[in-house]
Specification:
4 helices, six-stranded antiparallel β-sheet, mainly beta, single chain, 7% helix, 34 strands, 4 domains, 51% strand, Immunoglobulin-like, seven-stranded antiparallel β-sheet, Jelly Rolls
Length: 486
Amino acid sequence: MKNKFLLYLAFLFLFTAVKAKAQQGCGGDAIDYAYKKSVLLGKDSLFYFEMWPNEKTSTAYFNSAPLTISNVYVFGKVKTGDPGPATMQASIWNVNSTGVPTTMIPGASVTMDIAQAAGPVYHQFTFTTPVSVTGNFAVVVRNNDTGGDDFWAVGTSGYPATGPWLEGLTYYDWQGMWEKMSDVYAHVGEALLLPVVDYNLTAGFTAPTTTVNAGTSITFTNTSSSIFRDKVFNQHALEKHYANELDSTFVWNFGDGSANVYANNATHTYTTPGTYTVTLTGRMKGYVQSCSSTYTMQITVPGALPVTLVNFNAAEKNSNVEVKWETTAEQNVAKYEVETSQAGSVFTKLREVTANSNNTSNVYSYLHITPSAGDHYYRLKAIDKDGSFTYSNVVKVKIGAKAAAIKVMPNPIVGGKVNLQLTKQAAGKYEVSLKNASGQEVYKQSLQHNGTNNPIQLQLPSIVPGVYTLQVSNKINLLNTTVIIQ
């Protein structure tokens, strides 16, 4: 085990050093994660560890977001008593799952001479070309000095040996192999090798619908950049992880005067009709600069229906969907609109139905012809005579996948006139051909299909009566059916 040198430095001094040198502006920051973590754990002591020539040390950063590293800060000094300068190299490495450096990223290396100084300071190593990383990485520093000067790097001290605080492990290479800091210096800590990173911030969320009835809860799902949740880079996430503080990364405002919610995802219930703006703010509390990104969505809460809706439902019926609803007390209703959506959020109008406008029981229905396979959502829009409107509940119907098919009408074919129906076939150009029993092609024609089930009319030339194979093909599918020509 190497000899260690303990050094206690004031937190204010360390933070001021980073603030004075790090890049400014939203999206760029020096990542002083190791020291901030030790402060939260109440272990804010530092120590020197001596790096002899050819020795390396590293600090790993467990990362899930695309980053650009422009430079690195190394906290330390040339060993007291050595003349200096010491030639030092800083680089960015790939790491394995436990944070051990494996390979240096090509081009991610810079060397500089460090002069003798009274105390430790941050030394800035700037890469000629910024380094891009998309996963875990490590900052590695190597003593390249050929004159025998040692370098005193500074590290944190006193982490517990186990627990969720070991994300950024430091390893030391002093005998040609990487060893844990605790095995070399009897300290569980991390070297203060700080990357300066640039990152993009994008807040966002989704909702199952933008219209919800009063008293019905709606859940918002967060889709913001993953870096917001990464405690290595965001002190909001770091502080909540270690200190369980109320301060957190995401803030939800539902636009109705209710209290903000601090959470990743959120569920809310509106009680009063109206239009509300939901705002999600993702907060990036950097080590030098804090910034944020916001995303908004309009939510409509309709008023009471101008009609008593006894029931509203939809069900599959012979490959179609039948939408039915029953009403009473249609006081001022002008019409209904049947709407559908495959995602459950953005609805489009299928059909408009005139209301009976009476106080008796009314039953309405609409048949959605051959919808595509998958989930389909339906709702009813009741429109008053004054133009105001409101919505029913949303119902879901799942349509099973059906095989592509062709249908010839009539069959047998008389007089050469035929209607060709393509089912579950994509729109585009198709080739239609007839082959006799010997496989000889007696007819061929190109046609344009619009993707619907509407029949396509064909006029065949004069062909010898008999049994034939009709083929319909494009670049993807080939379908056959047997026809009789009379």
